Amino acid sequence: MSKFTIMVDTSYDLPQEFIDSNELKIIPIPFHLNGETHEDGRWQDISDEDFYKALADGGSAGTTLINPETFKEAFTDYAERNEELLVILLSSGLSGTAQNGALALQDVKETYPDCKISVVDGLNAAGGTGLVTALAVAKRNEGLSAEETAKWLEDKRHSCFSLFTVDDLMYLHRGGRLSKLQAVAGSIIGIKPLLNVHPDGTLKLKDKARGRKAALETLISQMSRSLHPDTKKLDTVIISHSNCIEDANKVADMVKARVDVENLYIVMMGPVIGAHVGPGCIALFFEADMDRPEYEEKFYNKK
């Protein structure tokens, strides 16, 4: 059985026990809060509740890229030992992190041309990165190599859906993920925006709902229309939230009313994504029966 190492950046949302039990290696995306930079993990010396409270109180947060040298140092360790490594990174449509990872691998291959390292642009974020990682773990357990798993993920990542609703789109605008026009249009009083991660890995404003309850219900209806009517079971569903656990539990109940789920994880959204969506975000991640390009064509590209 192949037993390669899987490395993922801190855009993931997965339970710590999953990380530990599957021996995942983490490479941190630095984030900052009110001028203080954190580079060694997800929360360090600040709790999740305090992070989102600081944002709600008007604090400022952001992220920086993992630089190529950091990647190069990490990759070289595996190349020197001739060990297999699969690296899963935050969507290139949201960050330059995946590009930096690919550039670093090119440099490492100049010295170690036969290294067994593969870098995958997850084309996703938060629980979506987590879902792609969970799929990679499953393929590793089946005995695939790192290279074989990377090639499999190139297609499979497009069936990993990411559906979001947020309380305040201005966080996404300030982080450069939405235009000011989109943010203002989605911030009308009482209107809650629905977003998804587009096939190209960017975040798009797709729908609106009147009120929070309707927004949560719309997440489920969007999930349902991506599944075959006779689909009764999903292997893995991840629900990420930015300090709004009650709404996350409501979404979990609605998911379970629609399908049986083998593995359902409710996870606090990490600061790398939380810095850009702010408090009050609920996101739903699952493997659909259609891929994202097909979904976009069927429901959003009609003339």
In short:
The chain has 303 residues and is of the alpha/beta class. Helices cover 41% and strands 24% of the residues.
The portion of residues forming beta strands comes to: 15-25%
Total count of helical runs of at least 4 residues: 12
Radius of gyration using CA atoms only: 19 Å
| Cα shape | globular
How far is it from the N-terminal to the C-terminal residue, by CA? 50 Å
> What is the share of helical residues?
40-55%
Nearest-integer average pLDDT: 90
Look at the helices and sheets and give the structural class: alpha/beta
Sheet with the most strands: spatial strand order: 10-9-8-13-11-12
pLDDT under 50 segments (min length 5)?
none
- The arrangement of helices and strands along the chain is EHEEEHEHEHEHHEHHEEHEHEHEH
Number of strands: 13
The profile of the biggest β sheet is:
6 strands, mixed
Describe, in plain words, how this protein is organized in 3D.
With 303 residues, this protein is an alpha/beta fold. 41% of the residues lie in helices and 24% in strands. It has twelve helices and 13 strands. The chain has helices spanning 16-21, 48-56, 68-81, 97-111, 127-142, 146-156, 170-174, 180-185, 212-225, 245-258, 271-277, 292-299; strands at residues 5-9, 25-27, 31-33, 36-38, 61-63, 85-89, 117-121, 160-165, 191-197, 203-210, 233-241, 260-268, 282-287. The strands form three sheets. It has a six-stranded mixed β-sheet, sandwiched between helices. Strands 2-1-6-7 form a four-stranded parallel β-sheet, sandwiched between helices. The chain has a three-stranded antiparallel β-sheet with strand order 4-3-5, covered by helices on one side. The mean pLDDT is 90.
